[in-house]
Amino acid sequence: MLPKQFRLKNKSAFNATYRARNTFHKDGVTLFAGFRKKQPDTPTRVGFVVSKKTHKRAVRRNRLKRLMREAYRLFLKSDDVGNSNEFMSLIFVGKEKALDKNFAQIQNIIKTLLEELKV
């Protein structure tokens, strides 16, 4: 699980991140990047979303969220998050295409999306 300081929770924070319109997409996972940080010492907050429209079973939705969360946590632990530290918030949105992927595939997708973030 991600440490509390890295979690994106407020609805207003999610809406602000969506409003920034920095999006990247790969194989059923979309990354929304928020605004740039003004204070570089604050942590980047991350949210993970899988809509009910993606799959009606909560078990399937939660599994995809767990895989994405764990992949990001491992990148954060190894300090391999690329330019994502430049942004205030990130949201990973899982789509139907990503439901059947295994952990290694999700990890590669997350890594590619983090590398696509431009400074």
SSE string: HEEEHEH
pLDDT averaged over residues: 91
Beta-strand segment tally: 4
Number of helices, counting only DSSP H or I runs of 4 residues or more: 3
Shape: globular
Task: Specify Rg, calculated over alpha carbons.
Answer: 13 Å
Question: Strand share of the residues?
Answer: 15-25%
Description:
With 119 residues, the protein is of the alpha+beta class. The protein has helices at 11-20, 58-77, 103-116, and strands spanning 22-26, 29-33, 45-50, 89-94. It contains three helices and four strands, in the order H-E-E-E-H-E-H. Helix 2 (58-77) links the parallel strand 3 and strand 4 (89-94). 37% of the residues lie in helices and 18% in strands. The model has no long low-confidence stretch (mean pLDDT 91). The protein has a single domain, classed as Ribosomal Protein S5, domain 2 (2-Layer Sandwich). It has a four-stranded mixed sheet.
Key structural traits:
119 residues, single chain, 3 helices, globular, 4 strands, alpha+beta, 37% helix, Ribosomal Protein S5, domain 2
Q: Summarize this, please?
A:
The protein has 119 residues and is an alpha+beta fold. Helices cover 37% and strands 18% of the residues.
